[in-house]
Amino acid sequence: MPAKHAENGLRKKIRSPERYQRFSKEWNQAVNVRSIHAKTFKDLAFQFGASVSTVIRRFDAVAKKELQGHPELPKVIAIDE
Questions:
Q1: Which residue from 78, 75, 31 is spatially nearest to 57, judged by alpha carbons?
Q2: Is it true that domain 2-67 has CATH number 1.10.260?
Q3: Contact assessment for residue 18 and residue 12, using Cβ atoms and an 8 Å cutoff
Q4: What is the pLDDT of residues 8-30, one digit of tens each?
């Protein structure tokens, strides 16, 4: 019986990706945080074993969330003579 109890405990700790999601939530969170501070998308993609386009899509999603609710900047800030 103890083996079965331990087996059930392990199953609960492992999170599998949700439907149609290739990477886990933890992986996505790590990429989101590091994409803000990384030098290049290529380096970050290499570190996480993903494509550059995947990392860029994750960064774009984070940037879009951060920019929501902020007013747009005017087209012209100042005119110098």
A1: 31
A2: no
A3: no
A4: 555 556 666 666 677 888 888 88
